[in-house]
């Protein structure tokens, strides 16, 4: 059965494929040429011929010497051929002509990314470059960083970008001044309690969300029974134009990837590492937990917290392909 990719990292596939075949192949050009030549030749020559006729006529009793004399009235005549003296010259020309007709017929065979991927996978399997793993291999630490692995998993819906977008949209649905009024009422009950107003929180959330959306890269979380995988994908590499990656959420799929990090049970994989300020943003998101609780307490439904890390055992990997 042929696998149907829903995500292909085109650049990685082309580069790996070129290494395995000792070159780079994207297309093949085939050209057919037909050459037809017509030749015409005309020669030029000279021919010299001498002839003399002496004729004696009995009737007229007269001797004639002439060049080719013919008398139709003489029924009896005597023709004598002797030393000829007649010149005839033939003039002929010489001409060479060439007519060439060339017909070119070109065919370009283009190899699609799907084709390159299936060839690449088969070559890697034949050379034992791919490890088939299960959750036991991750839990028991039977894999190393840098390994090419293939495994089955379900795509989870955990996405920090989606969580941030949800909270931002909820706050923007209401007048921020009214939300700040809730804070003022809360402060009256507890004068020692101080929180940033919702306007500040909203701006910070937007900045964080923009940072995580940069360069079109996202983290996708996939679940094996008792462990997880974090895949860093580029949204431009999905099989359809402008896709939504979570259309395949909770579906079983196969993943071919290169392992870049292994997290044991006491470790975790940070989903805010892309910001380069993970410590700051983790502290900020923890500080707005009371803001989210206050909204929910006032029947403004939103998330209670934001998941910013995936607990081990887990692997972090760069996917080459995701397919079903």
List the helices and strands and how they pair.
Layout: E1 5-8, H1 10-20, E2 27-42, E3 52-57, E4 62-66, E5 77-82, E6 95-110, H2 113-126, E7 130-132, H3 135-139, E8 148-155, H4 160-172, H5 176-189, H6 198-213, E9 217-224, E10 227-234, E11 252-263, E12 268-270, H7 278-287, H8 289-297, E13 309-311, E14 314-323
Helix pairs in contact: 1-2, 4-6
Pfam families: DUF6414 (PF19952)
InterPro entries: DUF6414
Number of helices: 8
User: What is the mean pLDDT?
Assistant: 80
Query: How are the strands of the largest sheet arranged?
Result: 8-9-10-14-11
The succession of helices and strands, N to C, reads EHEEEEEHEHEHHHEEEEHHEE
Q: What distance separates the N and C termini?
A: 10 Å
Rg from alpha-carbon coordinates: 47 Å
Oligomer designation: single chain
Total number of strands:
14
Q: What structural category characterises the helix and strand content?
A: alpha+beta
Number of domains: 2
Q: What is the percent of helical residues?
A: 25-40%
Q: Which residue ranges are poorly predicted, with pLDDT under 50 across at least 5 consecutive positions? A: 56-89
Largest sheet: 5 strands, mixed, barrel
Strand content: 25-35%
Which descriptor suits the 3D outline? Answer: elongated
InterPro entries: DUF6414
Pfam families: DUF6414
Any overview of this molecule?
This protein is α+β, with helices and mostly antiparallel strands and 324 residues long. The protein folds into 2 domains: 5-24 and 112-323, no CATH class; 52-82, no CATH class. Helices cover 28% and strands 33% of the residues. The protein has 8 helices and 14 strands. Strands 8-9-10-14-11 form a 5-stranded mixed β-barrel. Strands 4-3-5 form a 3-stranded antiparallel beta sheet, with no helix packed on it. A two-stranded antiparallel sheet has the order 2-6. The chain is elongated, with a radius of gyration of 47 Å. Mean pLDDT is 80; it is low at 56-89.
């Amino acid at each position: 059965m042929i696998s149907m990719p829903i995500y292909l990292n085109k650049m990685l596939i082309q580069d790996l494929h070129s290494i395995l075949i000792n070159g780079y192949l994207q297309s093949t050009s085939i050209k057919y040429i037909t050459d037809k030549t017509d030749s015409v030749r005309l020669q030029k020559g000279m021919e010299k011929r001498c002839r003399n006729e002496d004729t004696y006529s009995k009737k007229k009793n007269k001797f004639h010497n002439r060049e080719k004399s013919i008398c139709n009235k003489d029924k009896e005549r005597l023709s004598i051929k002797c030393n000829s003296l007649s010149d005839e010259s033939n003039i002929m020309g010489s001409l060479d002509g060439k007519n060439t007709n060339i017909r070119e017929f070109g065919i370009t065979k283009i190899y699609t990314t799907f084709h390159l991927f299936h060839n690449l996978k088969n070559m890697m399997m034949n050379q034992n470059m791919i490890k088939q793993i299960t959750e036991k291999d991750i839990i028991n630490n039977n894999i190393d960083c840098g390994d090419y692995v293939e495994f089955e998993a379900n795509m989870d819906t955990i996405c920090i970008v989606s969580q941030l977008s949800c909270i931002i949209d909820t706050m923007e649905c209401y007048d921020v001044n009214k939300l700040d009024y809730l804070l003022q009422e809360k402060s009256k009950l507890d004068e020692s309690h101080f929180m940033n107003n919702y306007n500040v929180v909203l701006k910070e959330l937007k900045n964080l969300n923009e940072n995580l959306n940069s360069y079109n890269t996202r983290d996708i979380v996939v679940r094996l029974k008792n462990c997880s995988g974090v895949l860093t994908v580029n949204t431009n590499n999905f099989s359809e134009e402008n896709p939504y990656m979570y259309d395949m959420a909770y579906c079983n799929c196969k993943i071919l990837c290169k392992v870049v990090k292994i997290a044991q049970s006491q470790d975790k994989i940070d989903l805010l590492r892309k910001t380069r300020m993970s410590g700051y943003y983790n502290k900020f998101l923890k500080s707005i937990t009371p803001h989210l609780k206050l909204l929910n307490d006032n029947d403004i439904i939103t998330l209670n917290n934001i998941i910013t890390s995936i607990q081990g055992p887990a692997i972090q990997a760069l996917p080459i392909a995701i397919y079903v």
